[in-house]
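Data card: per-record layout.
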Amino acid sequence: MPVPVWSVDPRTGQRREQAATEADAAAVDRAVDAAHAASAALADRATRATFLRAAAALFEEEAEAVVAVADAETALGPGRLNGELARTAYQLRSFADVVDEGEYLDVTIDHAAPELTPP
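The structure for this 119-residue chain is written out next.
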């Protein structure tokens, strides 16, 4: 029987709503299989960068709702949480830029210096 996971208001300690149910072994297996299936699509750098930028945009589009839920879960307050959301969106876009540039692949093309090549 699934065990409920409850959201708790940190200001009052009261249950807010059921947020999820604990996963059983079959649910974990399905999640792992889904992640594995997605890995092929995310192996493409352009797709991965697009995914990261889309995630950033969605966070920003849904900022009000995300901040409201996060505040209810953490009591950190909208000021702090809006800053965290902005930072997260910025980082996702930065990661997308790194993926686009490919520097993390550590590929180096060392061109020969013509003036040092023996005749």
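Known properties of this structure: Residues 44-104 form one domain. Helices lie at 25-42, 45-61, 63-74, 78-101.

See the next section for split statistics.
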